Each structure stands twice: as C-alpha cells, then as structure tokens.
Amino acid sequence: MKRSREEIADSIREFMIAMLHAAPQEGLSLSAAAVLGVLYEVGPQRITTLAASNAVTQPAMTALVNRLESTGLVLRVVDPVDSRARLVTITEKGIRTLLERRGRQNAAIAVTIDALDAAQAALLLQLVPTLREMSGRMKS
Predict the structure, then answer these.
(1) The listed CATH number (3.30.1490.20, 1.10.10.10, 3.30.300.30, 1.10.340.30) that belongs to domain 2-139
(2) The pTM is what?
C-alpha cells in the first residue's frame, strides 16, 4: 500500500505542476492567485492572516497586497470589529481576474480530459468526490 500511496501522490503532484505550466498565467503569480482565492472563498482578511495562510512573512504579504491594490484587484477596508485595523478585500476586478484564470486552467485540463477514452473519463468522474474531499482536508 505504501508504494501505491507514493505513486498516487507523485502522479497528483506531477499533474498539478503540468496543469500550472499548461495554463497561461497572464501576469498573476501563484501567490497573488492564492491570495485572491482566499479572499474570494473566505472573505476579507487581515494581512497577518493572509501571511500565515500563505506561509510568508508579514512584510512579504504587505508588498504583495500593495501590488494587488495598485492594480485594482484588492482594496483595504476598515475592520468592522476593530476600526483601527484594516481588512483586505477582493474587488470586482479581482474576482473577474481570478475566475478568468481558473477558467483558463479548467480549459487546459479539459483538453486532456477530452483526449481520454470514455472509460477513462468515467473513472475520473467517479473520483471527483474523493478529490474534493482531499482538497478540503488539505485546506484545513
């Protein structure tokens, strides 16, 4: 079982890398996309929280948020719980940019799925709930 677990993990990792290389990034780094994804899925966050969730320093996250803010993808708003603090929130432009990026990634993956035979495609479809569960576990 250990060998097959390692083989599965290695295959998933290789697929993820191939997918990232296959889909055009168009100026949005992986870190920037990750931050936009958190803001889109979770909601406004403090820079310290974003830094911790992305395993970077607070100064590095501040610099990234500054770049995202300068391009209109995020903005800082007053924290309704603590008016001294600021929250980073995604803008409509940020949402469009993120969803367009995800769409390009999905399209790149779809091309490879379309090349599969019916049995292979059906097998992948059966794995969707398991893949979603694995994703959820990795996020928490």
Answers:
(1) 1.10.10.10
(2) 0.82
